[in-house]
């Protein structure tokens, strides 16, 4: 098993070849499945990704990337091209009808005002789902993995060695008349259903299906190039005409506009079959009157009824090997541009855990956190969405604005927070109020200066995602003794950190990460010089001129690209430094350790007096933390 | 002649086909030639680009892009990938030997401190010349133009219709043994020699060659991956060891380092032939001692002696059809990372002028500005470079720093300024001190909010380069009468602006710009809705809520993507708005017009009281300005 994505014949107990085998079978090549496959393949996991559709998504479906998603993609060193080509939505407008029949703008404000939420990218990026998929497909292709298309997952069942998976492979579209259907069986350690709302994988997970709560309003969605004198089509805009219903306007890339158009429930003379494109266009004209609208071209038309549901199970309890993610595990309204984002973050959460599990470096507790963490987020999303969707339909601008303000950080994605568990233990020290580096949460964006090359960098994305934990040692004053005793304790061969490092080094030597097309430029080896499992980083407010990297303890001196200065040049517009934003400030006699998970969420935080004794204790605390979910089997 | 880059048979007076013909023959496919060809082809000019080398530059040569170059590429919607992959140098370090033989760091500071120079990209971007060339080659390829390689320019001569060009085409490297040499003749309106220091085109321009001023020191250049304990290899660093000479360290992309190593003039026992790679490496070790240095790999080694010269002529006076640009017209030390940047800006300056000349929209005065403008810059560069190169060699840190500070804006490229001429007439109104929108200069970078979609944008790059003039109407208070009378005067069919617009529309209809690979996303048509020759833009500090784009005068209302708000959200870190930075502020009873040339340099500026009468006068002033170098022949 040395080639990613290519099924290798396994060998059974008798030394005879049996069915081909992969480590993870990803079912569905939408954003969730591709995010998973891309991460697994990057980390060196033998991955097969199948999709029943013969081609990638070219039209319609999802279109919005939230700020947190861009941050996540930056950790993967992806997404710059989307940012370059996509349309950025910075503001949100509200229009309502007046008694005399005209429309007036009742509100126009920033979508993500800095005062409400601190974001590196304070906008929604509109770029078609197909562009996102293509980005991942190219990334996989460079690493030698292609999506197996026209391949439909049929079933899977537990075996002594894992799972046996059955699929059917259709002929391509060109020879569809042949109705060539091939059965394809293979073995896998894990199967992940990223196969959408009608998931076939979900049928393999007993009790997973949850009944939805269908809303009574029906919506049409129209993508195209419009000709209109309505002034706000380049903002996200909600228009509510009392007599005719609501429209949500979403600006699109390539000079296109998406309209979500409500078809009032009261129109009982129509059933959903007859509510075609022409009808929906007419509705749009009525709602937007007295402004005129016509279409230069229509790219896609769809209809949907809002239904909110969350699967009862995200993982098969019996085997622990069958997982659900994305639309297979939750459904909701598309109008808050959450679907593609939440789905990708489901598998972003799962990928690194699965990697460590497959490498034998994780205790079972690690993979168990997936369901707990992502099911909570799905419920948080549905709770928000029920209100949001109905307020758009009601056209209640004030209620919509209030709901929006309450949920701004969540909508942006940075407000997503996991409950306490073994990965995110409660912070024993005094955590400041407001957003900070809090276990289970995203750390706030912060700028620091990289010592070695004086580059100003965004600390939350500077270290690329390589499946490793990022250990930020925050030591304002380097003249303390804390750093020396901490580093020497961590480096001791008996520490769990050291033993995990040895085990991880062996694992990655045997099954390395795959090289990316731009690794020559990004130099990932700079971040794994000490360990494949931990990148140690220093954040200090000590003046640059008073220390040299070479004089730091070895685990830092050997990682020169992760020495960061919390300096005056890096303050944000409100005068806050990284240490201020992450920890609410530290005195010169204090220090802190922030363990950041491979997915960029804060794991655990400890704030101490920067004494020699505290360094020894902090190293023990780290061993305890990592011992809760990792193991060094060798 | 409908296909770019493909030679079309012209027809002679007797209706018989004669030699093939292009409008511009670009000789040399380095950065200068490719910048020219890319711009000409984009603008719809039939361009042939030839190069005697069989392949593009893959190693060595230039590596640094200055901030102004990145700004220029942004106007072309290019360069993002270079920024993403290149190495950014933010600081500069100085080291000097001490009497006891050790080295000490004598200085470490930002290369482009904000207090010294206001830059959108305050760093040098290190990315290999081959990456820059490839970017242009891809851009040309999409537009149907390939570089004609292994094609050596022989000569050109004037004909009644333009120029007759002779070339020789070698076989490819693979069949070199055949010594296949084909003659290739064609006709061209213009030939531009971008063929380097040993330019063959220069021989066609009488009296162009200038004797150089060779410096007596010899330098070796080494690109490779180093293993060293010297701490500052990721900064631009000058090391001067009294006994052994100087090194200039330049960090490179792909974990590489470039070293410029001085070979002291006193080493008379060596001639330049024997000063090989091993010798230069040994020199580097001696200079850097007591730090150690060795090479993991060496990618390229070169040697050069500094020689400064500027060609006496940049254009053939007799025909006005043969031009020189880049290294063909000037030579200097490579150490300030100016060569590739200055060369590209030579042809950036030439391309739009040549386009308008070929379309018959320009008076001869326009193309005549090329030599005057770029020759001045070449002399400015040499004046700076003589000092800079000798100070690096002398290791005089204080003098180097002083020279550097004096020339910071020039080195960054934004300080480049053209003398007054027909394009850059003196500003009659009171120009503020310091950097501002000054005729012949780059406008300072400034942020504004785009009205239509609330995007914060960099105003100096927001309107893409499409060969058009950008007319910024700066009207703080929209309740004045100035804007209405100005726009109505400009729109009158008898105005030169209107007549030029009609002529340009015909010209571009007959010979359109070529479509780029990402035009669907960038929507260039948004910027030529009113005119192919002018993009009208408004900058106002009037509150967004108090006006609608539709209610502006038609030439602005029909250009909704260029209505900009000089608002509180767009202030820079020093609290300055665009109007502050460009004009030193305007009162609410004032207005200004800033005519920005197609290359982004300020052409002319007029500051007026915002009265109705002033609007009429300002339109006349604009007609006079543009009448100085443009014509409407139809």
Automatic annotation (TrEMBL), chains A, B:
InterPro entries, per the entry: FAD-bd, FAD/NAD-bd_sf, Phe_hydrox_C_dim_dom, PHOX_C_sf, RIFMO-like, Thioredoxin-like_sf
Domain Phenol hydroxylase-like C-terminal dimerisation per the UniProt entry, residue ranges: 416-631
Superkingdom: Eukaryota
Signal peptide: none
Domain (FAD-binding): residue spans on this chain: 21-384
Record key words, sorted: FAD, Flavoprotein, Oxidoreductase
A UniProt-annotated Pfam family: Phe_hydrox_dim
Family: Belongs to the PheA/TfdB FAD monooxygenase family.
The protein, known as: FAD binding domain-containing protein
């Amino acid at each position: 098993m040395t080639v990613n994505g290519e099924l290798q014949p396994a060998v059974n107990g008798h030394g005879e070849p049996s069915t081909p085998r992969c480590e993870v079978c990803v079912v569905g090549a939408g954003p969730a499945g591709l995010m998973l496959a891309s991460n697994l393949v990057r980390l060196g996991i033998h991955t097969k990704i199948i999709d029943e559709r013969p081609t990638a998504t070219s039209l319609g479906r999802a279109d919005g990337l939230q700020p947190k998603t861009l941050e996540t993609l930056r950790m993967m060193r992806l997404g710059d091209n989307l940012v370059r080509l996509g349309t950025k939505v910075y503001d949100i407008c509200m229009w309502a009808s007046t008694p005399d029949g005209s429309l007036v703008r009742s509100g126009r404000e920033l979508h993500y005002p800095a005062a409400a939420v601190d974001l590196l990218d304070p906008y929604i990026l509109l770029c078609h789902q197909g562009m996102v998929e293509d980005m991942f497909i190219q990334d996989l292709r460079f690493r030698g993995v292609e999506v197996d298309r026209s391949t439909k997952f049929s079933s899977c069942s537990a075996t002594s060695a894992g799972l046996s998976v059955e699929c059917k492979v259709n002929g391509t579209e060109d020879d569809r008349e042949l109705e060539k259907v091939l059965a394809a069986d293979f073995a896998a350690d894990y199967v992940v259903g990223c196969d959408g709302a009608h998931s076939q994988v979900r049928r393999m997970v007993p009790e997973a299906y949850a009944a939805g709560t269908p809303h009574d309003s029906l919506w049409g969605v129209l993508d195209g190039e419009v000709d209109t004198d309505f002034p706000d089509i380049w903002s996200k805009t909600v228009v509510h005409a009392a007599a005719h219903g609501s429209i949500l306007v979403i600006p699109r890339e390539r000079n296109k506009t998406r309209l979500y158009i409500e078809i009032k429930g009261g129109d009982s003379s129509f059933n959903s079959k007859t509510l075609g494109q022409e009808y929906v266009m007419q509705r749009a004209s009525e709602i937007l009157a007295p402004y005129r609208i016509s279409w230069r071209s229509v790219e896609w038309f769809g209809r949907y009824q809002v239904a909110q549901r969350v699967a009862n199970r995200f993982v098969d309890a019996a085997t622990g090997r069958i997982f659900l993610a994305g639309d297979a595990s939750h459904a909701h309204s598309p109008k808050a541009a959450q679907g593609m984002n939440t789905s990708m973050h489901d598998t972003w959460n799962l990928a690194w855990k699965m990697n460590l599990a497959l490498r034998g470096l994780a205790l079972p507790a690690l993979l168990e956190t997936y369901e707990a963490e992502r099911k909570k987020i799905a419920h948080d999303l549905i709770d928000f969405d029920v209100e949001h969707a109905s307020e758009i339909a009601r056209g209640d601008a004030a209620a919509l604005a209030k709901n929006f303000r309450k949920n701004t950080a969540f909508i942006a994605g940075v407000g997503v927070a996991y409950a306490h568990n073994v990965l995110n233990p409660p912070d024993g020290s005094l955590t400041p109020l407001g957003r900070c580096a809090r276990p289970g949460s995203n750390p706030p964006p912060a700028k620091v200066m990289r010592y070695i090359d004086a580059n100003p960098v965004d600390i939350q994305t500077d270290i690329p995602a390589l499946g490793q934990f990022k250990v930020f040692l925050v030591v304002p004053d380097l003249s303390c003794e804390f750093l020396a005793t901490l580093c020497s304790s961590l480096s001791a061969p008996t520490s769990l950190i050291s033993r995990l490092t040895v085990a991880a080094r062996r694992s990655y030597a045997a099954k390395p990460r795959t090289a990316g097309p731009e690794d020559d430029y990004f130099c990932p080896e700079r971040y794994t010089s000490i360990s494949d499992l931990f990148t140690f980083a220093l954040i200090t407010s000590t003046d640059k001129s008073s220390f040299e990297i070479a004089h730091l303890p070895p685990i830092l001196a050997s990682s020169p690209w992760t020495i960061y200065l919390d300096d005056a040049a890096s303050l944000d517009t409100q005068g806050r430094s990284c240490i201020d934003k992450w920890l609410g400030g530290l005195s010169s006699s204090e220090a802190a350790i922030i363990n950041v998970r491979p997915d960029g969420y804060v794991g655990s935080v400890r704030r101490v007096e920067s004494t020699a004794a505290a360094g020894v204790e902090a190293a023990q605390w780290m061993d305890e933390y990592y011992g809760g979910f990792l193991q060094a089997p060798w």
